[in-house]
Amino acid sequence: MKQDETDVLVLGAGIVGVAAALHLQQRGRDVVLVDRNAAAGDETSYGNAGLIEVASVFPYMFPRDLGHLLRYALNRSADVHYQLSGLPEFMPWLLRYFAASSPERAANTARAALPLIRQSLVEHEALVAEAGVPELLRKTGWIKLFRSEASLGKSVADLERARSFGVTADVLDGASIAAREPNLMGRFSGAIHWLEPGFVPDPGALVKAYAALFARKGGRLLRGDARTLQQHGGGWRITTDTGPVTAREAVVALGPWSDLVFKPLGYRIPLGVKRGYHQHFTTWGNAVLQHPILDADRGYLLAPMNRGIRLTTGAEFARRDAPPSSVQIDRARAMARDLFPLGEAIEPQAWMGARPCLPDMLPVIGRAPRHPGLWFDFGHQHHGLTLGPVTGRLLAEMMTGQDPLANPAPFAAERFG
Question: Which residues form the FAD dependent oxidoreductase domain (predicted)?
Answer without folding.
Answer: 7-398
